[in-house]
Amino acid sequence: MATTQQSGYLTLAGRHLYVTVFAPAAAPRAAVLLHEAFGEEKKSAFRVMVRLARQLAEQGAAVVRYDPSGTGESSGDAAAATWDDWQAEAVGMAQWTRERFGGVPWYALGVRLGAFAALHAASHAGAAGVVLVEPVLSGEDCLRDLERRQLIKQAVTGTDGAAAAGSAERWARGEAVDFGGIPVGARLAESLRGEVLCQRLEGLPAACPLQVLRVSGGSSFPPAWGPLTARAAATPPGRAVVVRDKPFWGQIEYYESDAVLREVGAFLSAAAGLAAPPEGS
Q1: String of DSSP letters for 108-167
Q2: Using one digit for the tens of pLDDT, what is the confidence trace for 56-73?
Q3: pLDDT reported for residue 215
Q4: Rounded to a whole number, what is the distance in angstroms from the first to the last CA of the chain?
Q5: Which of 45, 50, 160, 235 has the most Cβ atoms closer than 10 angstroms to its Cβ?
Q6: Strand runs (DSSP E) across 149-274, as ranges?
Q7: Could you tell me the strand order of the sheet in which 15-24 lies?
Q8: Average pLDDT of each block of 10 consecutive residues along the chain (281 residues)?
Q9: What is the model's pLDDT at position 280?
Q10: What are the structural domains of the chain?
């Protein structure tokens, strides 16, 4: 199926967000709002996310990708970015998606840290379903992963690891800490420390199906994923699935994850009536 791709800026609360819309040639059967990973994880996952957006457009969905303020091509100072602004933007983007593609159901898709925005938007703007791909379970986990990744890079390159190692002290002084060229300010770090993903499930309507994907070399979910897997199983066609693959968001080189694309496409095919995902995806 032929698809189109258009990019531009959308203004929300005075902030200019960079938005890309992937759409089928025919009228879409559903809309999908994509909340991506953060920082270097977003860079690593970029190719997979574009492929996913194009695949879903081929299946018959309009897909909206955007950069939160202070990130990517959007306006704003990265070091001054706030969690409150990002959550408000997630809801604003959901409302825009719903209005832009009125008449069809919309779905929230969150990857890694984007899982928080996906659940928040779904709870406040009436999503027809939610997909979470290897969600970060807490803000503390996110900060720890940022630090670990930066320290590994510094060890490999032989550069000074003091910046990442002393992040807590620098945030306590109100400073921003650079992670791979992306500064994380003290206010954002403080907000993240109080976030627990499973608590966000409480705001999700009971009838809203949830698909949860864990991408791992193992074959089971850790106990901490229990609330997510139980909620997914409670609302068919939602379910919790372990995808046996490498972590596409954590590779130094771009890595393709056809299995993830297949699972997301299959869920949206069942939930939204999209065409089946193409063979080989």
Answers
A1: EEEETTHHHHHHHHHHHHT-SEEEEES---BHHHHHHHHHHHHHHHHHHHT---HHHHTH
A2: 999 999 999 999 999 999
A3: 96
A4: 15
A5: 45
A6: 177-179, 182-184, 210-216, 240-244
A7: 3-12, 15-24, 61-66, 30-35, 106-111, 129-133, 210-216, 240-244
A8: 91 96 96 96 94 97 98 95 97 97 96 98 97 98 90 69 70 91 94 96 95 94 97 97 94 85 97 90 54
A9: 62
A10: 3-137+196-272 (3.40.50.1820), 139-195 (no CATH)
Rounded Cα gap, residues 48 and 254, in angstroms: 8
Tell which residue, 110, 115, 126, 120, has the closest CA to residue 85: 120
Q: Is 39 left (phi over 0), alpha (psi -120 to 50) or beta?
A: left
Distance CA 207, CA 60 (A): 23
Nearest alpha carbon to residue 161 among 173, 171, 149:
149
Residues in the chain: 281
Cβ neighbours of 220 (radius 10 Å) = 10
Residue 169's Cβ-count burial label (10 Å; 0-12, 13-18, 19+) is exposed
* Entry pTM: 0.94
Helix (H, G, I), strand (E, B), or coil: what is residue 35?
strand
Supply the pLDDT for residue 123.
97
Give the integer Cα–Cα distance in Å for 240 and 237. Answer: 10
